[in-house]
Amino acid sequence: MIEEIEQYFRDFTQELAQVATRDELHRVKGKYAGRKSKFPVFLSRLKILPLEERRVVGQKLNEIKLLIEQLLKEKEAALLKEEKKEVLDISLPGKREPLGAFHPLRIVMDEIIAIFRSLGFRVEEGPEIETDFFNFEALNIPRDHPARDAQDSFYLEENLLLRTHTSPAQIRVMRKLAPPFRVIVPGKCYRRDAFDATHSPMFHQVEGLVVAPGISMGDLKGTIEIFVRRLFGEERKVRFRPSYFPFTEPSAEVDISCSICQGQGCRACGEKGWLEIMGAGLVHPQVFRNAGYDPEKVQGFAFGMGVERITMLKFGIPDIRWFFENDVAFLSSFKALR
Ligand code: PHE
């Protein structure tokens, strides 16, 4: 019988060694320690043994029983510890909700706004659906003016259209505020352009307008130079090129030096060494009159920049369509920026 008890113990230790979970332990415990174990059977057989043998076998049986109980306890403690370790494993990556990223246009738009705010500009808004009057007429662009051709438009009704630029907000702001003031108007614009590498039928502009007595081209130049250096870096050069807009006089196109060739001329800038970023000029006297101001009493400057273009220059993005394709790989590459 001693032999049998020892065999029983060996079976037990072998099975215990295989145990890896608490469920398995529970099963082994039931088999070797509970009422269904072999111990009740061993005990009843013990009773009919001769006294001397009974003492020896009884002692053995007791020893083994206690040993089994102790080993079960130890195993249970080890398993528990293992489980706790799993819970506390802080090196495991947590469950994470995927976080969105700011769109590159939003990042640059906010940067532009922040720079102008720091220069004392306030932010205003205008409607995306405009009247012919605000979008064209009040800006000195009459119905038969060739400047309308350059801004082929989406019309909703004869006198209602999606604004082709943010300049109509100039008139709205002048009617709402009293000078002196400095405002910028960021927003969406629409033109009936084919969707290609440099054109999109929907795009963004930031309009600027400063009105006060005695404002000159010098104020415009100084403001734009500070803006360009803050946005693109101190080493950037700014150039004002004479141009024409019906609502500014004089008018200028603002160029920045090409960052790739430093003004030498390369493929990125079309061998010009300069890249155009906005239109600007002094507010035309007729525009002041259209807004109800006396051009003898106040002067002002205005500018309008394309946000897509500026973002493409800032990040070296070659195709405007990338902004609107919802390609997550492209968009998430701006995650680190904000
Ligand atoms: N509205 C002009 C455009 O869309 C830009 C501009 C704004 C020019 C203000 C002069 C002054 O091209």
Describe this structure in words.
The chain has 338 residues and is an alpha+beta fold. The protein folds into 2 domains: 83 residues; 234 residues, BirA Bifunctional Protein, domain 2, CATH 3.30.930.10. The protein contains 11 helices and 10 strands. It has a 7-stranded mixed β-sheet with strand order 1-5-6-10-9-8-7, sandwiched between helices. A 3-stranded antiparallel β-sheet has the order 2-4-3. Strand 7 and strand 8 form a beta hairpin. Helix 3 packs antiparallel against helix 4. The longest helix has 37 residues. It is rod-shaped. The mean pLDDT is 92. The site of phenylalanine has 10 residues, from strand 9 and strand 10. The site of phenylalanine (PHE) has 10 residues, from strand 9 and strand 10.
Quick structural gist:
The protein is an alpha+beta fold. It has helices spanning 2-18, 22-32, 39-47, 51-87, 104-118, 132-135, 168-176, 217-232, 285-290, 307-315, 328-332, and strands at residues 122-123, 129-131, 155-157, 160-162, 181-190, 202-212, 238-245, 248-257, 274-283, 299-306.
Layout of SSEs?
Layout: H1 2-18, H2 22-32, H3 39-47, H4 51-87, H5 104-118, E1 122-123, E2 129-131, H6 132-135, E3 155-157, E4 160-162, H7 168-176, E5 181-190, E6 202-212, H8 217-232, E7 238-245, E8 248-257, E9 274-283, H9 285-290, E10 299-306, H10 307-315, H11 328-332
Parallel strand pairs: 1-5
Antiparallel strand pairs: 2-4, 3-4, 5-6, 6-10, 7-8, 8-9, 9-10
Helix pairs in contact: 1-4, 2-4, 3-4, 5-10
The structure holds phenylalanine.
